Amino acid sequence: MQQANPASTPRDFLLSVEGLTVSFDGFKAVNDLSFYVDENEIRVIIGPNGAGKTTVLDLICGRTTATEGSIRFRDKELTRMREHEIVHAGVGRKFQNPSIYEDLTVFENLELSFPRGRGVFGALAFKRDKQVIDRVEEIAEMIFLRDQLKTEAAILSHGQKQWLEIGMLLIQSPELLMLDEPVAGMSVSERVKTAELLHQIIKDHSVIVIEHDMKFVQDIAHRVTVMHQGKVLSEGSMDHVQHDPKVIEVYLGH
Ligand code: ADP
Ligand code: MG
After folding, report:
1. What is the rounded CA–CA span in Å between residue 107 and residue 130?
2. Where do the domains of the chain lie, and which CATH numbers do they carry?
3. Separation of CA 29 and ligand 1 centre (Å)
4. Is residue 54 lining ligand 1, measured as CB closer than 6 Å?
5. By the 8 A CB rule, do 21 and 28 touch?
6. Rounded to the nearest whole angstrom, what is the distance from the C-alpha of residue 194 to the centroid of ligand 1?
7. Distance, CA of 245 to CA of 164 (rounded, Å)
8. 3-state percent breakdown (helix, strand, coil) of the chain, nearest 5
9. Which of 20, 24, 211 most suits a substitution to test ligand 1, by most atoms within 8 Å of the C-beta?
10. Considering only CA atoms, which residue is closest to atom 7 of ligand 1?
11. Core-most of 167, 233, 252, 253, by most CB within 10 Å?
12. CA atoms of 121 and 108, how far apart (whole Å)
């Protein structure tokens, strides 16, 4: 894998974040942040609470508007785009709490997320053709819910709900997936399966994950970006950042 090298041109990377800053009434939650993500990379962002991790995802997906800086995704400047345009450009975002339709089945949740079936009226007019069914089944297999297609989402375990929401993103075929604390509240075996799922996903996507569980980070990360007070404190392999004195100091200080 190519190493992050700010000297190379931005279009070498799938995502180039440069000088990104957001100020909330003078408080810079993200402060002159730069990082670069390759194709087929799993990047994990770690850092103490309040470091600005979730805000970075909010900025990339257009939920929050940057005060300064640039976010380039392929040839598109995301800081100038609306949230739905960013989704359309190929960036999918999963929030900390699953936003699935509890009273619909697993199948229906995935079907609704299929690009042509979006929205209630679209879904009504929408023929369940073979292409959709095949795609729903393919995604359900990946997210370990192949045998739960007829199950109402409400009765899935917390971990299964998290997988379903990942599936609802995957079915839209985004190039870049962003997951905020995907294994929070999961059992150990669910965490292992989620790591498997991510390894499967990056065969044809890139992923940015925010996570606290260091065992999970170790299992999945190609590179780790450590954030502190809105800035990059350290970056590199898990081994590198774990032994970085600056990182050790920040984590022991908390
Ligand atoms: P993390 O995800 O690393 O725990 P966040 O990105 O959620 O951190 O928050 C970083 C800091 O920015 C926190 O101090 C938080 O209170 C602040 N913050 C986040 N969003 C807003 C907002 N919309 N308005 C004001 N302050 C915010
Ligand atoms: Mg957060």
Report:
1. 13
2. 10-90+175-253 (3.40.50.300), 104-173 (no CATH)
3. 6
4. yes
5. yes
6. 26
7. 39
8. 40, 25, 35
9. 24
10. 54
11. 167
12. 14
Tell me how far CA of residue 67 lies from CA of 29, 33, 36, 71, in angstroms: 11, 12, 19, 12
**pLDDT 10s digit of each residue in the chain, 254 long?**
445 555 555 457 999 999 999 999 999 999 999 999 999 999 999 999 999 999 999 999 999 999 999 999 999 999 999 999 999 999 999 876 668 999 999 999 999 988 864 555 555 555 567 888 999 999 999 999 999 999 999 999 999 999 999 999 999 999 999 999 999 889 999 999 999 999 999 999 999 999 989 999 999 999 999 999 999 999 999 999 999 999 999 987 65
Q: Which ligand is nearest to the CA of 33?
A: 1
Write down the pTM of the prediction.
Answer: 0.89
- Asked whether 50 lines ligand 1 (CB < 6 A), one says yes
